[in-house]
């Protein structure tokens, strides 16, 4: 076991140094993303257990995050959110906001914030944004507004709304669990009630909403026009060509699979045009005939200096774009890689993509790199946006795929509308039982999951698709790291360092500094990881300067749940990056003033409501 806390508070010990080294190691992994976050979480469990003599984390402690109340509650709430979304309730509210908004940008913003924030207070805000991205994109296009003006406000409104209740974000639930655990040391700390901070949350939503409505949209450029031309936005003309098969071509009679192998990995067949009829994303077994034309996606070098293929004419430029634009029974769509997508970390194979999803990839935008030229073999990440050409009848199926967010609604969405009242009643029952403290939130949420299956809102096999497993593994991995910070006294050592630097300042100023620090750290690591690392430090710092630890815990919680400075700090920011055509600087331009404004609002609100 580690040395007693009294000893660790007097200075660094070997235990503290080891735990802080593990924390630094974790931050580097989260920042560099050399491996997916769920794999990083598993690695942290292994490292902590291997270093047990210093971290105090036994193998049982290392996996305790899986059985932690916060982890299981988050899992259950994700399933409940999925059940509500499958009934089309969120989408129906979105369509009504379209009817209200019309062509007025101010009304469109008001509708977006007014629908998104309250919903995000009771449904996990990540799926809320995933569901509303296509709705808001359609709202913008119908109202002759650039989607760029609405999509970042959609993401920010969901984060603000997530602070209305305990269940608005997974971060709130995790922070509540940490606060309860620390309550054994600090009497002021306890598990959050359902509406513990709703008063402050309402103020945050109103102030943030007013900023987005009157100031924020003026800071956002129109990156994409209404009803944007996807081919221009993705510079598709630079990457496509057409190969016409003459009668003497050696490819006549061969399958698409064989021809793809012959052409090489950098050339992907998007369409087969035969007798003025196009086959989009052709299956590999399709046999080619003389006179067929192949529309292919490649890279600039190949288009500029095409290879020589006997019996095949190479065409580039406007005629190829015209072919894509006039293709009947096909459409262009943007697919955003979802947080729980099976494709995250996988290398993009256009042939496999065609076979599995029936869609041909024309372009790719990354939150980290912008437009990507060489897409074959590139590892996909959350928030990557693929431009695809797809048969119209395939779009509804893609919209049901958990791997993607389709950035516009299919013409005939498939929802269980008859189950909507049941789903809403179950969610209300879960919240009501937890609020009245008749049942712990964990038990009421799990009961709600069972009720949704028994009533047919969800099929049993849909439970697993509803869960964002990387979030669950992340929680399970960082929770034992937080335990190690507390047990070894590393949190107290960090707090002592902070107090030495800032302890002479008024407690309210130190509280504000914790908000700012948490916000900045959340931009480079996950929001859940930041609360695990900083809540113990914040509570210890408050105790050392004679302030209210609960006030400091709330400041960290609010800051970690509202990350406005970049596309990577929060999942919802990633979801809108591609459909909005944004650049990294757009988030800073609109997000930095909002972050600063909310830091003051939250600090003043905490001091007024809970004292410091």
As a percent range, the share of strand residues is 5-15%
SS summary, helix count: 28
Could you name the CATH class of the domain at 230-406?
A: Alpha Beta
Just name the CATH architecture of the domain at 230-406.
2-Layer Sandwich
Structural Rg = 26 Å
Helical content stands at: 55-70%
What ranges have pLDDT less than 50 throughout 5 or more consecutive residues? 1-10
Quaternary status: single chain
Which class of secondary structure composition applies to the elements? alpha+beta
Mean pLDDT score: 86
Main beta-sheet annotation: 5 strands, antiparallel
The name CATH uses for the topology of the domain at 230-406 is Alpha-Beta Plaits
Walkthrough of the structure:
There is one protein chain. The chain has 28 helices and 10 strands. A 5-stranded antiparallel β-sheet has the order 3-2-4-1-5. A hairpin with a 3-residue loop joins strand 7 and strand 8. 57% of the residues lie in helices and 9% in strands. It has 612 residues and is of the alpha+beta class.
Characteristics:
globular, alpha+beta, five-stranded antiparallel β-sheet, disordered N terminus, 612 residues, 28 helices
Describe what is shown at a glance.
This is SLC13 family permease. With 612 residues, the protein is α+β, with helices and mostly antiparallel strands.
Write the topology of this structure.
Blueprint: H1 5-9, H2 14-32, H3 37-50, H4 52-55, H5 59-62, H6 69-86, H7 89-101, H8 105-122, H9 125-142, H10 148-161, H11 170-182, H12 198-214, H13 230-233, E1 240-245, H14 256-263, E2 268-274, E3 277-280, E4 293-297, H15 300-304, E5 312-316, H16 318-325, E6 330-337, H17 350-357, E7 360-366, E8 370-371, E9 385-391, H18 395-400, E10 404-406, H19 420-435, H20 441-454, H21 462-466, H22 469-488, H23 490-502, H24 507-524, H25 527-544, H26 549-560, H27 571-580, H28 584-610
Antiparallel strand pairs: 1-4, 1-5, 2-3, 2-4, 6-9, 6-10, 7-8, 7-9
Helix pairs in contact: 2-3, 2-22, 3-22, 6-11, 6-19, 6-20, 6-22, 7-8, 7-9, 8-9, 8-10, 8-12, 9-10, 9-27, 10-12, 10-27, 11-25, 11-26, 12-28, 19-20, 22-25, 23-25, 24-25, 24-26, 24-28, 25-26, 26-28
